[in-house]
Amino acid sequence: MIIKESMLIAICFGFCLTSIVLMVLSIAGYCLFSNSFQNYELIISNWRQYPISDIRISQAHGCNDDELVLNNYQFPGTYNGCDCRQSYSLIYFGMYSSSCSYNQTLHGCRQIYPVENRRFWTFSDPSAEQKFILCGTLDKTYNFYQHATQSNECKEGQLKCGTNSDNFICTYNTKCPIVELGYQSENANTKNEYIKLSNTAQLWYNRESNDQMPFVEMRVAEGEGVCLLNHERSITKGRNDYFLMRDKKVDCDRDPRFQLLYKIDEYTFYSINDSIDLPSKLPEFYINQIYKWGLYKRGYVPWKQSCRGDILKQFKDQEPLLYNIHKMQLGIMIISIIHLCIFGLINILQFKFEILSGFSYVGNIVSLGICLILITIQYRKAHSEVQLFRDIVDKQCSDKVTQQTLIILADSLDNDIYRFNYGLFILLIIVIAISISIICITGFNKFMDNKHHQTYDGEYDNDYENRNDLRGSFQNSYADPFHEPIPFYKNNTQNY
After folding, report:
1. Cα 397 to the chain's mean position, in Å?
2. Sheet holding 81-83: strands in order across?
């Protein structure tokens, strides 16, 4: 069916614009919610860890199988690169984050080969007199996620560690886990235990503190602390990471719940981990003593006794629900991208050939309908989740950092999921209604055209038959001069 060009342009442009809006909003919603969801997962991950009951240093043989390497840092490795700084071509110059091409090699560029990831699990005292590995023994009879106490007393056979109702734990171990950990003589408490690092340095720790939860994790980080998103790798402010690094360090927001023990310089850190050779393998990779790497520790994320029981259970139960929201948001994003790629191309082809196919409309309705179903589910879930997190924030169940994390999570559910999806819901309803209307109008017009053609053909056939009848009558009334004489002449001859 041929449609006027202006109408065709308007319809194609409308569908393409809708696809773009759907894709942009779905991508924005997914990305914004991802960070908030990761913060929630980090809280749950922290609670699932076992507390450290003992620590020791190992200087040669690493940690035992039942121990955890506390000062573990993973160097992520690098990608292939191409160094054209000394190329004699005017086309290629500088360095490129890809393998050298044949032409680049001909013009004097050099291949930068990748460096595999490395495990930096050695640290040293600040004076660099002694390098060591810090090993921790886990108390596997307790973790906060499964065994958070709901009363001020422990069960029979358990050891109560701490007296503060918000911070104590109950363990089946024979001694309490480590709570405080520090460097040298920062705390002169007579109950401290010490680990000698060198002739001039030592770590102290104790198992009794009413103000902190047990020590459960340790990180090595560059700069001023561990990133709030703990999986990110921090970097010194104003410094750029190496351009070929697989997982680049970022100048992120720091997590103040990680407490600094002490720092060493970067040259020492790379040297004691046998990686001082990296600058010779990676052009423009520098190791500098002015940059510092710190050893940080953190305990359990605190949660008040008054907020345990049903509130804590509801909070933990949100994990699969938030995961499903995150997964469905990913599905909406993928469908929106596919929708734009496929039906955007179809609309362009339709505009080129000046036709509108039923497949395009049906395909638009089906794909948008799937998005509509997912968005409806998301809309209802997000609406119920927001209020729960707002209630937890109002009750001040945790520390300031966690409270702020929950505020951001609630806002993300409210704005990035609830409101975004509400807008998408209205948009999709309008587009689907328009698509169905166009299908109905197109089908009706086609039906009327077919009916008109059938009527016209019938009239044409009747007219053709009538004309044939008239022609036959005329031929029958016309005498053939070669077979029969005209009656007029016959009569005249007889009279004559």
Report:
1. 28
2. 95-96, 81-83, 110-112
Q: Which residues pair with 123 in a beta bridge?
A: 132
Task: Let me know: does 276 contact 313? Beta carbons within 8 Å.
Answer: no
Q: How many angstroms separate the CA atoms of 400 and 139, rounded?
A: 28
Rounded (10°) angle between helices 400-411 and 5-48:
160
What angle (nearest 5°) sits at the alpha carbon of residue 254, between those of residues 252 and 256?
175
Cα–Cα nearest to 150, from 40, 313, 299: 313
Question: 303: Cβ–Cβ under 8 A, 6 or more apart, which residues?
Answer: 144, 148, 166, 312, 397, 398
Q: List CB contacts of 425: < 8 A, sequence separation 6 or more.
A: 372, 375, 376, 379
- The secondary structure of the chain in percent helix, strand, coil, rounded to multiples of 5, reads 45, 15, 35
Kindly tell me the sign of the dihedral angle through the C-alpha atoms of 167, 168, 173, 177: positive
What residues pair up with 265 in beta bridges, in sequence order?
292
pLDDT (tens digit, 0 to 9) for every residue of the chain, 496 residues total? 444 555 555 555 666 676 777 778 778 778 888 888 888 999 999 999 999 999 988 876 788 888 899 989 999 999 999 999 988 888 888 899 999 999 999 988 999 999 999 999 899 888 777 888 999 999 998 999 988 888 888 888 888 888 888 888 888 988 899 998 888 755 555 567 888 877 777 888 888 877 788 999 999 999 999 999 888 999 999 999 999 999 999 999 999 999 999 999 999 999 999 999 999 999 999 999 999 999 999 999 999 988 988 899 989 988 888 888 888 778 778 877 777 777 666 665 555 554 445 555 565 666 666 666 766 666 566 666 788 888 899 999 999 999 998 998 888 887 767 666 666 667 667 766 766 666 666 666 666 666 666 665 555 555 555 555 545 554 554 444 444 444 444 444 444 3
Query: What residues does 96 pair with on adjacent strands?
Result: 82
Residue of 167, 75, 149 lying closest to 119 (CA atoms): 75
Burial of 228 (0-12, 13-18, 19+ CB in 10 A): buried
Q: How far apart are CA 278 and CA 274, in angstroms?
A: 9
Q: Provide DSSP, 119-142.
A: EE--EE-TT-S-EEEEEEEE-TT-
Question: pTM to 2 decimals?
Answer: 0.75
Q: How many helices (H) and strands (E) does the chain have?
A: 10, 17
